[in-house]
């Protein structure tokens, strides 16, 4: 695909084309994982053609967990720059994670009255495909986390959205005009060439003031 080699996207390193260069750079996403060598983690982070084929076609939770479990811990993604990425969406109905190729620009932090305790929020600008017309917010953990924390968050949120949709159908069948809206969430797997460099969750930006009732694990 064109975006894997596009000159628009900086490597984030001045140490040449070595696969280790971005791991050792000042803006590195590298954090060691006990019991694993750098080579093993780098191999786990490098997506093979077969991985791309499966992700684009759709994969189940178990396959994805097994594929990502040795990728280690990632530092927060670099803002104010463009990235190639895989956009992954989860469907509770099919129980599949499906990817599509994309390119994004990670912008400034959002100005909010009350900041989250666990994650930072910032603007995400899609540079092509249908998401281009929307406004999106990215969320990244303040502390270093593994990829699966992000995937679990989104899987939980999209499962909740599925049941909210089913509930709305029942309301409609009963001629009750009330409808509940649940914000969808997706994953952006940040890539450098074919290597995973980071991960964030992304939601549509909704204008207005809202009261947060839950953080997807408990009432707040």
Describe it.
The chain is of the alpha+beta class and 220 residues long. It has one domain: Phosphorylase Kinase, domain 1 (2-Layer Sandwich). It contains 5 helices and 9 strands, in the order αβαααββββββαββ. The strands form 2 sheets. A 6-stranded antiparallel β-barrel has the order 3-4-5-6-9-8. A 3-stranded antiparallel β-sheet has the order 1-2-7. A hairpin with a 4-residue loop joins β3 and β4. The protein starts with 20 loop residues before the first helix and ends in a 16-residue tail after the last strand. It holds the Pfam family Alpha_kinase. GO terms for molecular function: ATP binding; protein serine/threonine kinase activity. This is Alpha-protein kinase 1 isoform 1. Keywords: Kinase, Serine/threonine-protein kinase, Transferase.
């Amino acid at each position: 695909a064109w975006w894997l080699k596009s000159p628009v996207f900086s490597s984030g390193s001045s140490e040449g084309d070595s696969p280790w260069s971005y791991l050792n750079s000042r803006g590195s996403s590298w954090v060691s994982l006990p019991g694993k060598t750098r080579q093993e983690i780098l191999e786990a982070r490098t997506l093979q053609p077969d991985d791309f084929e499966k992700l684009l076609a759709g994969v189940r939770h178990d396959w994805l967990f097994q594929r990502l479990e040795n990728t280690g811990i990632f530092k927060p993604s670099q803002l104010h720059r463009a990235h190639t990425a895989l956009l992954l969406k989860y469907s509770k109905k099919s129980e599949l994670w499906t990817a599509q190729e994309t390119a994004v620009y990670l912008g400034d932090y959002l100005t909010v009255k009350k900041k989250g305790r666990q994650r930072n929020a910032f603007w995400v600008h899609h540079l092509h495909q249908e998401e281009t017309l929307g406004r999106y917010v990215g969320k990244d953990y303040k502390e270093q986390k593994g990829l699966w924390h992000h995937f679990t968050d989104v899987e939980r949120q999209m499962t909740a959205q599925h049941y909210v949709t089913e509930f709305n159908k029942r309301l409609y069948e009963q001629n009750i005009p009330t409808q509940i809206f649940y914000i969808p969430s997706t994953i952006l797997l940040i890539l450098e060439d074919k290597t995973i460099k980071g991960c964030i969750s992304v939601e549509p930006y909704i204008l207005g003031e809202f009261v947060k009732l839950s953080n997807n694990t408990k009432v707040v």
